[in-house]
């Protein structure tokens, strides 16, 4: 199994630009999670999906952030417009209802907004 | 609401010494408990998990943790530290509700000196 795949691994952009982060979960997993990690705030859950449906988006910081899961094998996290304070590492994770809440993390996308 | 508290943002040990990373949880129902490890510039990797079976749980790389309900603790230990154990360690909790949502602690960075 290839594990959770995220792209790009690194993204540098300028303030005001749109940023799209991508995630491919482990095949057969029905939960998908987006996290943000910063030195100041640690690991924060932004949103999670079950069977492609958003279940809890209470962690999404503001309307500039949006996430979609058009099918079971793909999800995006979009920031528009981006701001310097969005600089962080964004992780995607997936898990299975058949498991015991074990989440498998991708390698992360390091976002730098100048 | 479920939560975990990790005591000590940094723990320093010498190579060969005992590793003890502390985690206390708060949960009104029987929890599932997890330890994840994050190596530099990588995603989180599951070390071990407690899911209401044996209270002493063995994980990868020689780590183990003991669930103590009376102390609401789930401390992570390793008898002899290795240089390669230097990483950040996260404790996490969930409840068996099927919602698959983990709540992570703030992390403990383990430093191993020669």
Write the layout of secondary structure elements.
The complex is a heterodimer of chains A (114) and B (114).
Chain A: E1 5-7, E2 10-13, E3 19-24, E4 31-38, E5 42-50, E6 53-56, E7 65-71, E8 74-79, E9 88-95, E10 104-105, E11 109-113
Chain B: E1 3-7, E2 10-14, E3 19-26, E4 31-38, E5 44-50, E6 56-58, E7 64-68, E8 73-78, E9 87-95, E10 103-104, E11 108-113
Quick description:
The complex is a heterodimer of chains A (114) and B (114). Chain A has strands at residues 5-7, 10-13, 19-24, 31-38, 42-50, 53-56, 65-71, 74-79, 88-95, 104-105, 109-113.
General description of the model:
Chain A is 0% helix and 54% strand. Chain A is mostly beta strands. In chain A, a hairpin with an 8-residue loop joins strand 9 and strand 10 (104-105). Chain B has no helices and eleven strands. Chain B has strands at residues 3-7, 10-14, 19-26, 31-38, 44-50, 56-58, 64-68, 73-78, 87-95, 103-104, 108-113. In chain B, strands 2, 4, 5, 9, 10 and 11 form a six-stranded mixed β-sheet that branches. Chain B has a five-stranded antiparallel β-sheet with strand order 1-3-8-7-6, with no helix packed on it. In chain B, strand 7 (64-68) and strand 8 (73-78) form a beta hairpin. Chain B is globular and about 45 Å long. At the A-B interface, strand 5, strand 9 and strand 10 of A face strand 4 and strand 5 of B.
